[in-house]
Amino acid sequence: MSLPKILQRTRSLAGAAGIASLSFAPACALLSKSEPNIPRYFSPETASAPAAPTAPMPESGLEMRLGVVKADGYIKDKIVHRDSTYEVGYYEERLWTDKPEAYVRRALARDLFDRRGVREVVSGVGTTLDVDVVAFEEVMKPRHVGRIELTYVLYDDRIVRLSRSIMVERPIADAKGDAAAGAAVQAMADALAAAVDGVADATVAELRSETAPSKPAP
């Protein structure tokens, strides 16, 4: 074989090898990608839910309806972290087992109807409690805390009897790795219990004020 033909064949083989290496590179890149995040599910109810009573609670003589319990649009199943006053984000791998408003509703029902003996109204006219979950998040700065904020309205068929907000923060213990997520959820569980207790205290106090006998005029 002549020298020109040998050189031409060498160039052709080199070009083919280059194309093959370029074609192989993306495949290598795909194979070398890191493993996808595996979702982890958490619940704030276990630590905050009181033990079931061993005997029926005595009725308080009060009654009410637990109405709409909803959450702001950004509060979803992914756990929220607040990085600044104006910025929130989501953990891609940390999710709640249920919607945050469902946790609040169940906690309120337990506190009002089971623990405090309020009779639940399911139909007809009655005093109603509506709740909006405004915050259900892990706050990173300036303090690392679990924060829950609830806005609630108690009303009857004529007037709004009570309209308030309550915000509870609980410190998140320093932890690393898997323990960090557990510490954050524990703080959220404590904040949930305290916020619900505050709403129930105010609601029951208002219901009692309606049933209290009026003093005769002097």
Characterization of this structure:
This protein is α/β, with parallel strands linked by helices. It has one domain (40-211): Rossmann fold (3-Layer(aba) Sandwich). It has four helices and eight strands. It has helices spanning 3-31, 45-48, 100-115, 178-211, and strands at 40-42, 63-71, 78-84, 87-96, 119-120, 128-139, 145-155, 160-171. Strands 1, 2, 3, 4, 5, 6, 7 and 8 form an eight-stranded mixed β-sheet that branches. The chain is elongated and about 65 Å long. Mean pLDDT is 84; it is low at 16-31.
Put the structure in a nutshell.
This protein is α/β, with parallel strands linked by helices and 218 residues long. It is 38% helix and 30% strand.
CATH fold field value: Rossmann fold
Q: Give the class-level CATH name.
A: Alpha Beta
Helix percent band: 25-40%
Number of strands: 8
Please trace the helix and strand order, writing H or E for each element. HEHEEEHEEEEH
Largest sheet: 8 strands, mixed
Give the rounded overall mean pLDDT. Answer: 84
The helix-and-strand class reads: alpha/beta
The overall number of domains is 1
User: Strand fraction band?
Assistant: 25-35%
**CATH architecture assignment:** 3-Layer(aba) Sandwich
Number of helices: 4
CATH superfamily: ABC-type transport auxiliary lipoprotein component
* Poorly predicted runs: 16-31
Radius of gyration using CA atoms only: 29 Å
Q: Quick one: overall form?
A: elongated
